[in-house]
Design a protein that fits this description.
The structure holds three protein chains of three kinds. Chain A is 32% helix and 19% strand. By secondary structure, chain A is of the alpha/beta class. The longest helix of chain B has 16 residues, at 231-246. The chains are: A alpha/beta, B alpha/beta, C alpha/beta. At the A-B interface, β1, β2, β3, α1 and α7 of A face β1, β2, β4, α2 and α7 of B.
């Protein structure tokens, strides 16, 4: 009899908690928290506690599948790999390498993301590789790069406990990143002031000292208003502005026009509340900003993020402990997937594709000439697929059929493809449309690393064997590359892959498995002796002249505002009990018992006007589509706003959302679109 | 002390007093339970208050020892147990979850500092083999603070604490005494599901009542709470009440049945029960 | 100003206290109307969660009425009730709810007047105590 506990990293959110997988005779029987882990400290959220159940689900894919005559039949690995290799050759020769695109996975390990982007670039010959970060933090990557020089969380999670003031905007931290909310609450116990800015009365508002309830999509106005008050009362950090930033005059001019009265008109926040919050933030010795999807998923996403950077730099709250800008990344490895370069315009470490030196470096390492033109982003790929310019797609660990905006258009795009390969652990809604399905191993069945939102690279250890014939994603990619003819994919273990990554990526330079086994390392970790970097920008920013840039940013309305025909603002988001497209959480008993299906949150006054009862089924419509969904009457949403969590395939919120994109980051506007609600006569089955 | 534990474990394995040793293993600085099947592995055996041994596995909702014994009913398991581990084993045996006959307990006492760290009242097992009995912590400032509050103050305090709850079920998951297959905390009719914060006070009240006479005072619930709700305070008070009302302490005697499962004749209650309580 | 009328929930066991309540009714014994009776087969059926849920849902007081010790139709059901209520009251006390909002009484089938007396006295006590503070906890 054999019993052991294998320490691994949680596959759900970006907090990066660790827990032990209990393995009895090769079977996963339970989960134990790890008290010595720096972030989770022996505590887990409900998803983390149940992260073992979906791994052992009966619905796991165990054999490769090929679509023949309209339905799936099982096939051997050799057969599917040969089929894919043949198609790849065909499309490369007939239509060129850019007719193929690749979706990498923010759920897979760093090694796998690196291999996927290497495969796309070196083997397929295209830069059309992207992943779901496009849908969540693309604004962060662009916005913080233009403000600071690099686009990641500037400080670490535990430092939040010692902040004097925490501003949480666009983040339902207690539900999205529960273990990070723990540190916010601890800071409160120690006397910190909490400012919450959110259109919904989220869980954190009951602990907030200042709650600013804004109209969805008006974040730039809020930031400018706060800065207006700070400058007006002389609370800015003049020394920091002079020595470490540039562009102050431009910012000052713009911000002058956002008086508290004007901000009240735009956002609906009373001017007294705005002034009090601004004072609390500026007067604190160490103030921290936390944000998440609430400000990134807009057509003004980049503007929102840069505004937050403006506010932090204005008050000197960057470059020291317990301060900074802290974007909370949603997926367990979305930070890692971005770091590994699974993006159409950069290689690993954010080295640009159009930079000749970078292209040469990677080209020499991979022994191949690399394509020069930056590739397409996620939503663009779907558009091009619908138009017929993209013939084939290789999707790993993503479910665009539920996660992308305007699902009917996505379905059109995917169905229009001539060849679709999906590699996943379950037969997701996207996999059901595929021509070839490859069964992959879950996080408990392979070795690798995840990078959490605080840039901490942590080990993922193998606890059990993958079921049936499923294999680790890195092994599948290597085998596929070899069948197509590449000789550059001979790796004996993920440790070797990480060594290659470290050799090509300066910020991961000192990261190797023997160091990681003893604990996580926060990048930049430049050499074998470097201990990792908990907080950034201590002495200088990473922009060209070492200074942070302050921008004067004007407020712009969201792309689609409510009108007579569609009078509600529809916002979408997450809840604590389920995760993203529900592939993992909806196979977990306890989570399904907590929340079995979707609902639309509607305020009591609106419900009364429409004569709706609680839990009554209604039809929600937008210009993209309509769904039938249960209504939940609650004061959480204000009048005129409705909210739908996007996890539920049978009432998918993304049927309704607007695929309008931020012009630079190309992130869709999930948080604001116009909708209408109607009563329905018959309850759907 | 650690050397003595390892030596004794080695002797037990070699003399075939036990077939396997269930204890904590240390690897790369991380400590977790492990089943040592060979004397050569015992170099990694460690003792620590950082982790207990007998956790309930979910979703099967069986204790890990219970699962092991079901797989191999005839294997004799040597358990390197602290006071809290032993009490958990005894309470589980009382309820038919494990077979104590096939378990040999190597009782290890905690030091005074370790007892202070866990706020432990009884920091040693009955089957003490290694270490000295220490006095343990009988004063708890959280308990005293609660008892000094008036009723409305207590309600305000708990309302604040319970509104932080994020329904992780961590307190229940780490409790060795929580192994019900149909846990009431998960059911809609007792505590509303799908919303944060969970129904106050129902969600945690269910555990307060159900674990009241089983609580072994290990404090794992409080250590597992992400939002630092002072759960151990109420459980400590309930342990005192159970001792006061029924002269019963959980985890001491495997033959003594829980007072809530017995009649008043078998286990009388302190107060007069003629009419009105 | 509307006078506060407490809402009381009473769990009555089928064989003794419910019959006692019936007897009070048949005998036309007056008692205030604030009581809502829930019949259970035995007072031992009353889970402490029922009592806590009643308070959590807004009841100002909860009565649990069973057979006298030794007279339980199921032999020892009321023994369990006695022990459970003792622990329940302690928990409520620690949480900040006045434990006197719960009362356990033994009322036999022939004690019609006693039933009315117990209920009347309890309602008076609840009136003095005031509304249940748990009522202010907002639901969804």
């Amino acid at each position: 009899m054999e019993y052991k506990n294998v320490l691994t990293t949680c596959p759900y959110c970006g907090a990066g908690c660790n827990f032990y997988l209990q393995v009895l005779d090769g079977e996963l029987v339970g989960i134990l928290p790890c008290k010595s882990h720096p972030v989770s400290q022996g505590k887990l959220c409900i998803k983390g506690w149940n992260a073992g159940e979906f791994v052992t689900s009966d619905e796991r894919l165990t054999k490769p599948l090929i679509r023949r005559n309209g339905s799936f039949t099982e096939a051997s690995w050799q057969e599917v790999l040969d089929t894919i290799a043949k198609k790849v050759k065909e499309y490369k020769e007939s239509y060129g390498p850019d007719s193929i695109s690749v979706l990498s996975s923010a759920k897979c390990t760093n090694e796998e993301n690196y291999l996927m982007m290497k495969f796309a670039r070196a083997v397929l010959g295209t830069n059309n590789v992207d992943h779901c970060a496009r849908l969540c933090h693309a604004s962060t990557v662009v916005g913080l790069v233009q403000s600071f020089g690099s686009g990641a969380m500037t400080n670490s999670i535990r430092e939040l406990e010692d902040a004097g003031c925490i501003l949480v905007i666009g983040s339902n931290t207690a539900e999205q990143h529960p273990l990070i909310a723990r540190y916010i609450l601890r800071a409160k116990e120690k006397g910190a002031k909490l400012i919450v800015v959110d259109p919904r009365a989220i869980t954190l508002t009951q602990f907030a000292d200042h709650y600013l309830r804004l109209r969805p999509g008006t974040d730039v106005a809020v930031f400018n208003g706060l800065m207006n008050v700070i400058l007006g009362e002389g609370l800015e950090d003049k020394e920091f502005i002079n020595e470490r930033t540039e562009g102050f005059e431009e910012l000052k001019e713009t911000v002058k026009r956002y008086t508290p009265e004007r901000v009240e008109e735009i956002t609906g926040i009373s001017k007294d509340k705005l002034i009090a919050a601004a004072r609390a933030y500026a007067k604190a010795e160490r103030a921290s900003i936390i944000y998440s999807m609430g400000i990134t998923q807009h057509t003004t996403g980049v503007d929102n993020v840069s505004s937050s950077a403006n506010l932090a730099m204005l008050t000197g709250n960057v470059g020291k402990t317990s301060t900074g800008i802290n974007p909370l990344r949603g997926q367990n490895n979305v930070q890692g997937a971005c770091d590994m370069g699974a993006l159409p315009n950069v290689y690993s470490g954010y080295q640009n594709v159009i930079d000749e030196k970078a292209r040469e470096k990677f080209g020499n390492a991979w022994k191949v000439k690399l394509p020069e033109k930056p590739g397409l982003t996620v939503v663009e790929m779907m558009n091009e697929a619908a138009r017929g310019n993209i013939k084939a797609m290789y999707i790993m660990g993503e479910n665009p059929m539920i996660s992308d905006p305007d699902i009917s258009h996505v379905k059109e795009g995917l169905k229009n493809l001539e060849f679709l390969v999906v590699q996943d652990i379950f037969l997701t809604e996207t996999a059901q449309l595929a021509d070839v399905v490859l069964p992959a191993a879950s996080y408990a069945e392979k070795e690798g690393t995840f990078t959490s939102t605080e840039r901490l690279v942590q080990m993922v250890r193998k606890a059990i064997e993958p079921p049936g014939e499923s294999r680790s994603d890195w092994q599948i990619i290597c085998d596929l590359a070899k069948v197509i003819g590449s000789k550059e994919f001979e790796y004996k273990s993920p440790a070797e892959i990480m060594d290659e990554i470290a050799s090509l990526t300066p910020s991961y330079g000192g990261i190797s498995y023997d160091r990681l086994r003893k604990g996580g390392l926060a990048w930049p970790c430049l050499s074998k002796e470097h201990p990792g970097t908990p907080y950034l920008y201590k002495e200088k920013f990473t922009r060209a002249n070492d200074r942070g840039k302050l921008f004067g940013i004007e407020f712009k309305e969201p792309a689609e505002l409510p009108d007579d025909e569609y009078p509600f603002i529809l916002s979408t988001g997450r809840i604590i009990f389920h995760f993203h497209t529900g592939t993992m959480t909806r196979k977990t008993g306890l989570l399904n018992r907590e929340v079995a299906t979707g609902y639309v949150e509607i305020s009591p006054k609106d419900a009364e006007r429409l004569a709706l009862a609680n839990r009554e089924f209604v039809s929600v419509q937008t210009r993209r589509g309509q769904i039938e969904i249960k209504a939940l009457i609650t004061e959480r949403v204000s009048e005129g706003v409705i909210f739908i969590p996007f996890h539920f395939a049978e009432c998918a919120a993304n049927v309704l959302t607007n695929p309008a994109l931020d012009p630079v980051a190309k992130i869709p506007e999930y948080k604001v679109c116009a909708a209408k609600i109607e009563k329905i006569k018959e309850i759907p089955r | 002390m650690l050397e003595k534990v390892r030596d004794l474990a080695k002797r037990w394995l070699e003399d075939k007093e036990v077939d396997v040793i269930f204890g904590l293993k240390e690897q790369d600085g991380y400590i977790a339970p492990y089943l040592f099947t060979d004397a050569s592995e015992l170099g990694n055996l460690t003792i620590s208050t950082q982790c207990r041994l007998c956790y309930t596995c979910r979703p099967s909702k069986e204790n890990i020892l219970s699962l092991m014994q079901r797989k191999e009913p005839n294997t004799k398991i040597g358990v390197v147990a602290r006071g809290c581990d032993e009490r958990a084993l005894i309470e589980l045996a009382k309820r038919g979850q494990i077979d104590l006959g096939k378990v040999k307990i190597m009782g290890v006492a905690c030091t005074q500092d370790e007892a202070k760290g866990c706020k432990c009242e009884r920091a040693y097992p009955n089957n003490l083999v290694l270490g000295e009995r220490v006095k343990g912590v009988s004063e708890d400032e959280n308990v005293d603070a609660l008892l000094n509050k008036s009723l409305p103050e207590r309600l305000t305090f708990w309302r604040h604490e319970l509104s932080k709850c994020i329904k992780c079920y961590g307190c229940r998951n780490v409790c060795p005494m929580c192994f019900c297959k149909d846990c009431k905390m998960e059911q809609e009719i007792y505590a509303r599901t799908g919303w944060l914060p969970p129904e106050i006070p129902m969600f945690l009240f269910i555990r307060f009542y159900h674990v009241s006479e089983r609580c072994i005072g290990c404090g794992e619930c409080e250590k597992a709470c992400p939002v630092d709700i002072p759960l151990l305070t109420i459980f400590k008070l309930l342990r005192r009440d159970v001792k006061d009302l029924f002269d019963y302490e959980a985890g001491l005697d495997a033959g003594q049945e829980s007072p809530l499962l017995t009649t008043l004749d078998e286990a009388p209650m302190k107060e007069e029960v003629t009419s009105g309580v | 100003m509307v006078e506060f009328e407490p809402r009381i929930v009473g769990f009555c066991c089928n064989w003794c206290s419910y019959v006692g309540a019936d007897l009070a009714g048949v005998s036309r014994i007056q008692y205030p109307p604030n009581l809502r009776i829930i019949r259970v087969m035995c007072s031992g059926r009353v889970e402490p969660e029922f009592v806590a849920k009643a308070l959590s849902s807004g009841a100002d007081g909860v009565l649990v009425l069973g057979c006298h010790i030794g007279d339980c139709h199921y032999m020892y059901g009321n023994h369990r009730t006695a022990k459970r209520m003792a622990i329940l009251k302690r928990i409520l006390g620690y949480l900040g709810v006045d434990p006197s909002r719960i009362r356990l009484e033994w009322v036999s089938a022939s004690e019609g007047p006693r039933f009315a007396e117990v209920v009347t006295e309890f309602i008076k006590e609840m009136k003095n105590l005031g509304p249940n503070p748990l009522k202010e906890v907002k639901a969804c």
